[in-house]
Structure formats: C-alpha cells, structure tokens
C-alpha cells in the first residue's frame, strides 16, 4: 500500500529514497495529472492553488498538509477543519535567520548607521545607544520571540513579552497578557511584533495600542502585515512619537509602487525575506511526523489549531 505525496517544495534524491522506504510516492506540479487529484494524501511545501483543486475533487484523499510557512493565515482553515485535514507548520524552523535580521535592524538604528549611510561629509553622530539603554517588548513569546529574546540577552537588553494569557515563558523579564497592556513598563524603547496573522491580531497595532508607547525608538514587524494599521504607524513616524520602524511584512505584498511606505525616511522595508538563510530543512521538520502519520498515530509536532489560527 503506497501513500501519494504532492511535493510543492523541492525534495532531494536522498529525501525521495527515504520516502520510498516508507512506501511514499512523489508527484510534483510538473507531472501531476487530474487523476492524481483524487489520490493525493499528503501535500508538502509551499502554498499552491493545486491544494484548492484537490479539495474541490469529490472523494479526494487529502489528509495532511505540511506547510512550508510557519504562518498559515493564507490557508483555507475552515475547509480544512470541515474535512478534518491535519495542517502542520514550520514554526521554529526559521527563527534563527529571522532573529538575526531583527538584531540587524536594531543595531542599524541604535548605533546610528542609518545616519552615516546617507551622509557624505564628516559629522560625527553621537546619539547612539547600547542595547542596555533600550528596553524591549516582544509581542508573541513563541519560537521566533524566544530566539530574538535569547540574542537580545547576550547584549544586556531588558526583554519583556506579551502573549495570550501572560503565562511565563523562558527568560523574559516578565510576560503580560495581551488584554493587560497597561502593565507594560512605560520606558519601553523597542516594540517587536512576532504575532501570527489571525482574526484576534488583525490591525492590533493601531493608534490606540501604539499610543501606549511614548517616544518609541523603534517598531519592528516580522510577524504578519495584517496586524498593523499602516496609516496609524506612518502618522506616528511623521509626528516623531515613533522614531524608526522596520517592516518585513506589510498589508499588501508586494508593496504597491505608489505606496507611501517606499518614501518614509525613518523606515526600513525588507520584503518578507528575513526568514532566508540556513535553517532546519523542511524535510527534517516533516519527518518528525511522518512515521506517526503512516501508523495512524496522532501527530504531535507543529500541529496547527484551527480555532486559534496558529
Ligand atoms: N517574516 C517572516 O518571514 C516570517 C517567518 C516565519 C513566521 N512568521 C510569522 O511569525 C509568526 C510567529 O511565528 P512563531 O514560530 O514564533 O509562532 P509560535 O506559534 O511559536 O508563537 C506564536 C506566539 O504568538 C502568541 N499569540 C498568538 N495569538 C496571540 C494573541 N491574539 N495575543 C497574544 N499573543 C498571541 C502565542 O501565545 C505565541 O507566543 C507566524 O505565525 C508567522 O505569521 C513570519
Ligand atoms: O510564515 C513563514 O514561515 C514565512 O512567512 C514564510 O516562510 C515566508 O513565506 P510566505 O509563505 O509567508 O510567503
């Protein structure tokens, strides 16, 4: 008895040999035929419209989607729940490259590189800060939030966290519940968003919530663009109540050519690219669940909760 897998992300020859040992056969978007739609059991990798075609095929066999992404806001979660299709994500897999990008944003502004980058005359810039001077709060104390906190601690930062209930996590100085933000210390200088895109987090960083932070040095978003009201953020970057921002994710991706974001001086835009760099392979993540899947055991690694949306 073989199991058919649709490979939407590349597999090496060694990966395919491993899958053969488990009696898993591979179909790719290049060689898929309409007959395959009703036989695919596992989808592996990048998002694709092929998944929708499979879901629309009567009596399809799709039982498990292994997403390439950690964020699964683009997945048809209601449909997957209705058809009881398991969804696993890659949370944790790209935490190291993302956290290193966040550190580079922070150093860029804290050490004054943004000034020197555009300067063509000799004028030392002394408004530089060490990380001990810039207390941080990270929204989302998950795998990415924890990796950023670990790096920040090396440089002596004070790091607070925010999550759903305020439950303590790892080495955060203190963790606050998202509905109890008044408790966050008033001297926060850096806000980092590592929240997933869900109905609960949509437009969370609007005027009301950004107003909680007075004279913010830096706002960073590497979670999802849906969490930020971009006009409210731009207003604050322009009135000086937020000095700098770094956005890896935005409401519209690619960012439209006529977007005001392109012209904001105190803002760095990276293009949903902070995850790039060496990280655990997708195949390795996938293999943590495959033996259980093939022996009808419950999957335990990175299983998405449809209700929560992450
Ligand atoms: N920029 C990128 O390329 C990139 C790459 C990977 C992930 N991401 C995004 O980062 C997100 C987080 O990734 P992760 O691996 O750290 O996820 P994770 O599941 O490990 O952690 C999610 C965290 O968010 C918190 N959270 C969720 N909903 C919340 C709410 N409503 N209020 C307060 N806290 C809430 C959870 O308590 C948890 O601490 C992903 O969902 C994805 O959207 C972006
Ligand atoms: O959620 C993630 O893991 C990243 O956002 C993702 O890997 C980058 O690609 P996306 O699927 O979000 O375009």
TrEMBL record:
Q: Which UniProt keywords apply?
A: NAD, Oxidoreductase
Tell me the protein family, please. Belongs to the D-isomer specific 2-hydroxyacid dehydrogenase family.
Q: Which SUPFAM superfamilies does its entry note?
A: Formate/glycerate dehydrogenase catalytic domain-like, NAD(P)-binding Rossmann-fold domains
**What Pfam families does this protein's entry cite?**
2-Hacid_dh (PF00389), 2-Hacid_dh_C (PF02826)
Q: Where is the D-isomer specific 2-hydroxyacid dehydrogenase catalytic domain?
A: 9-273
Q: Which PANTHER family does the UniProt entry name for this protein? A: 2-HACID_DH_C DOMAIN-CONTAINING PROTEIN (PTHR43333), D-ISOMER SPECIFIC 2-HYDROXYACID DEHYDROGENASE NAD-BINDING DOMAIN-CONTAINING PROTEIN (PTHR43333:SF1)
Task: Provide the organism lineage as a comma list.
Answer: Bacteria, Bacillati, Bacillota, Bacilli, Lactobacillales
What is the protein name for this chain?
A: 4-phosphoerythronate dehydrogenase
Its top-level enzyme class, in one word, is: oxidoreductase
Source domain of life is Bacteria
Keyword rRNA-binding in record: no
- What terms describe the molecular function in GO for this protein? 4-phosphoerythronate dehydrogenase activity; NAD binding
Under the heading InterPro entries, the entry gives: D-isomer_2_OHA_DH_cat_dom, D-isomer_DH_NAD-bd, NAD(P)-bd_dom_sf
Q: Which residues form the D-isomer specific 2-hydroxyacid dehydrogenase NAD-binding domain?
A: 108-273
EC number annotated for this UniProt entry? 1.1.1.290
């Amino acid at each position: 008895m073989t199991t058919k897998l649709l490979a939407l992300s590349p597999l090496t020859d060694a990966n395919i040999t491993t899958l053969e040992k488990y009696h898993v056969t591979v179909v790719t978007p290049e060689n898929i035929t309409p007959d395959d739609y009703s036989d695919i059991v596992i989808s592996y990798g990048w998002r694709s419209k092929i998944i929708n075609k499979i879901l629309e095929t009567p009596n399809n066999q799709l039982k498990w989607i292994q997403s390439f992404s950690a964020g699964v806001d683009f997945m048809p979660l209601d449909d997957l729940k209705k058809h009881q299709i398991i969804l696993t994500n890659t949370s944790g897999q790209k935490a190291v490259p993302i956290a290193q990008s966040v550190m580079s944003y922070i150093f860029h502004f804290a050490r004054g590189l943004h000034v020197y980058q555009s300067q063509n005359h000799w004028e030392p810039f002394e408004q530089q800060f060490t990380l001990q001077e810039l207390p941080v709060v990270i929204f989302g104390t998950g795998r990415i939030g924890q990796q950023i906190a670990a790096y920040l601690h090396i440089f002596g930062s004070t790091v607070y966290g925010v999550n759903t209930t305020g439950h303590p996590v790892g080495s955060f100085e203190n963790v606050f519940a998202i509905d109890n933000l008044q408790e966050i210390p008033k001297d926060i200088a850096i806000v980092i968003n590592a929240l997933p895109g869900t109905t609960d987090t949509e437009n969370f960083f609007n005027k009301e919530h950004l107003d909680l932070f007075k004279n913010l040095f830096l706002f960073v978003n590497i979670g999802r663009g849906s969490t930020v009201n971009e006009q409210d953020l731009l207003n604050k970057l322009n009135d000086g109540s937020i000095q700098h921002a770094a956005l890896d994710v935005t409401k519209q991706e690619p960012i439209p050519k006529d977007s005001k974001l392109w012209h904001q001086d105190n803002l760095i835009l990276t293009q949903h690219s902070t995850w790039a760099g060496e990280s655990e392979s997708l195949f390795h993540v996938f293999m943590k669940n495959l033996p259980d899947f093939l022996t009808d055991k419950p999957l335990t690694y990175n299983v998405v909760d449809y209700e929560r949306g992450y």
